[in-house]
Structure formats: structure tokens, C-alpha cells
Amino acid sequence: MLNNKTKVYITLITTIGITFIIYSILNINYNYIGEIIVFGLIAAITESLPIYINKQVTVSVGYAIDLMALLIFGPYEAAIIGTLGYLLEIVKKRDNSIECVFNKPYYKTLFNISQIAISVGLGGLIYKYLGGKTGTLVYPNYILQAIVAAIVYYFLNNILVTVLVSLLLSKSFIKTWLKDFSWMVTNFLFLAFIGILMAFTFVAYGYISLVIFFVPLLMVRYMFKLYMELKQSYYDTINALTKALEAKDRYTLGHSKSVEKLAVYLCREAGFSEAHTEMVRIAALLHDVGKIGIVENILNKPGKLSKEEYDHIKQHPVSGYEILKDVPFLKNVRYWVRYHHEWYNGNGYPDGISGRQIPLEAEILAIADVFDALVSDRPYRNAYTREEAYKIIVDNEGTQFSPRVIKLFKKAYEKNKEDFKHDF
């Protein structure tokens, strides 16, 4: 069920988009009608082969086709081609059902054709406004205008979809964009290059260029799909390990997911790239994986641990390091896992390192780990409140935690206070 903000947003974008589509139909060059149909069918093929980023978001290589059309025919023709791509798409979904315009929610179709018409059309209008000429060789005279048009098209399309997803998930625009869209910029650069190159060769050599470039474009899509599937398999394996640990230690149920969530907020305050943050997320999920080797009688003991039992628990960072050390993909993660119980003043374990010897990533894991432990019930005490846990951590600046990680923690807490809780 859509919330009111989402309904208003979809209505606004649909109104603007449908108006622009009608205006485009009235202003296209009807000498291009055959080309518009052919390009529309090609756009439909690319849109029929989406790659799932998550349940709500998919991407395709249709961007290159739309950009090509924009540079060859102009904004109105490209808007119609982009619209045809979404109207004619036939998508096989993850559950093997077929989705097309006849069984898709009408508001979804209206939003999709509207946002593509607006973003492609505005990109084309910018190209013309800057002096770019359609149907001529882009290089060398109009390459700058083409690059600007590609950027306008990409980011406007990105913004329109990000706003919708953020409204659907009730999350902030920035968080949604950073999580689901920002990492695709490199992909965009490559597709923009392909789109401009295809426009150049189409003007120079005609339809033969479509045959030459369309197959490589589908290969690009296939390689990207393989990458996404491989990435998902990594997460599935990591989540399986996490669940195996939580099945053994009932007091830490959901702990790894909470540490992951809080660590991401601190990574953003530290200015880490999305790729860097992804690795810290993985480390957060795996930070206690070494506890798999600890007997359940100790992990689930309701009372205070003996010295021998506590010494055994203190070996879990080393055990985690040993489990991960032979995985090339986790080259740095293994050290962050090993050092996540080290203290700034050197009183931590297992190696007793101090100060800047402790990687910032391990410090982030440590502070997220401690906060979540404090706001969770334990067999020997009730959970602290969010404010009490915050004070305990801040009071340990200079001993357990460094000033630099406390600074990140304070900023992340102030911006995301409602999310600083154990809720998994």
C-alpha cells in the first residue's frame, strides 16, 4: 500500500511526464518514424533484461540506447523511444512469472515511462541548448555537449528513481542513494562512452553499427549480471556463517546485523567510499565468527564466567582471524576482526596493541560492538537505555576508545539517533 507522500510524488512525476510525452508526439520529425520504431524495439529488448540490485531496484543497459537516440534524433524522438522501451518490455521475474504492461500495476508503468521521458528529454534539450546538433558526428565538435547531456540524463533519472525508493522505504534520500545507486557511477561512465560511440558510428555507417555494438552491449550486461550474482553469493555465505553462530549463541541473536548497521553510519562519517564501507559491513557481520569454536556451555552461561572461561572467550578474535586468513577477498577484513577488542590505551586483547596501531576500521567495529551489547539484554543484566549506552561509551574516550572514533560516533549518533538500538 502506497503512503500519501509516495502517491503525491508519483502523481506529480506522471503529470509532468505524460504532458512531455504528448508534447513530444506532436513535435517529433515524422520522417524518423521508422527509426523510432526500430530503436524503440531495441530499447524494449534491453529493458526486458534487467539486473536486480535489490527487490525494488533494477538496472539495464538501455541507458546507452536512449543516449544514442538522443544524440541522433533529438529530445522528443528519444523520449518516445525511451517510452516505447518501457511499454514493450517483457520481463521474466525472479519467481519465473512474466511481467508486461498488461499485468503490471498501472501506476508503475506510468511512473516508469514518465521518469524516462523527462530525463531523456531534458538531456536532449540541454544538448541542443548548448549548441549540439543531432544527426551529425558527435566527435570532435559536439563531444562536450554530448558528455553534459549524458550526465544530465543519468543524474536526473537517478534522482527521480531514488526519491521514489526513499519514499517507499521511508528512508532519507542520501542514505538511499549512497546504498543503492552511488556505486553505479562507474557503470554509468562506461555506458555513456558506449552510447556516444554508438551514436558516432550510426551516423557514419548506419544500421550495421547497431549489429556491431548491440552484441557487445548485451555481453556487458551479462558480465554485470554475473558480478551481481557473485556478490550476492558472498553475502549469502556470510549470512549463513552469521546465522550458524547465532544459533549457537542465543544471547547475541541479531547482534552482527546491528553492528553492521551502526558501523555503516560511522564509515559514512569517516568519509569511506562505498566499496570501503562494503568491506567494513562484511567485517561487522563476521566480527564474532571465531566464537564458532567456543563450546555452548560457556557462550550461554547465565552467570559470571570464571577466569579460564573468560580467557577462552578472549581467543575468539584470533580464531576469527584464522578462519578468514586464507580468503583473498577478505585480506583486510581478517585484521579488523582480529583487532576489534583492542583498546586505545593498550589494555585490550588479543595482542595488546594501542593508539594508531589499531586500524580505524577495527575501532569502528569495536564501538558498534560495544554499543549494541550495552543496549541488549544479557543473562546477567537488563539492557541499558540508548542515552545510558551513549554516555558509557563517551566516558571511555582516551581509554577504550580513541578520540578520533569517539568523534565519528558522536556525529553518527546525532544524525541517526533513532537507529541506534538493537532491533534485529
Write up what this structure looks like.
- This protein is mostly helical and 424 residues long.
- The chain contains 18 helices and 4 strands.
- The chain has helices at 4-27, 33-47, 62-73, 75-87, 106-129, 143-169, 173-180, 185-205, 208-248, 255-270, 274-286, 296-299, 307-313, 316-324, 333-338, 360-374, 386-395, 403-415, and strands at residues 51-52, 58-59, 91-92, 98-99.
- The strands form 2 sheets. Strands 1-2 form a two-stranded antiparallel ribbon. Strands 3-4 form a two-stranded antiparallel sheet.
- A hairpin with a 5-residue loop joins strand 1 (51-52) and strand 2 (58-59).
- Helix 1 (4-27) packs across helix 4 (75-87) and helix 10 crosses helix 18 (403-415).
- The model has no long low-confidence stretch (mean pLDDT 89).
Query: Kindly state the mean pLDDT as a whole number?
Result: 89
Order of helices and strands: HHEEHHEEHHHHHHHHHHHHHH
Extract low-pLDDT stretches.
none
Radius of gyration: 26 Å
Strand order of the largest sheet: 1-2
Find the count of extended strands (DSSP E, 2+ residues): 4
Spatial gap, N to C terminus = 24 Å
Main structural class: mainly alpha
Query: Helicity range of the residues?
Result: 55-70%
The portion of residues forming beta strands comes to: under 5%
The major β-sheet equals: 2 strands, antiparallel
Helical stretch tally = 18
Q: Based on CA inertia axes, which overall geometry fits?
A: elongated
List the helices and strands and how they pair.
Elements: H1 4-27, H2 33-47, E1 51-52, E2 58-59, H3 62-73, H4 75-87, E3 91-92, E4 98-99, H5 106-129, H6 143-169, H7 173-180, H8 185-205, H9 208-248, H10 255-270, H11 274-286, H12 296-299, H13 307-313, H14 316-324, H15 333-338, H16 360-374, H17 386-395, H18 403-415
Antiparallel strand pairs: 1-2, 3-4
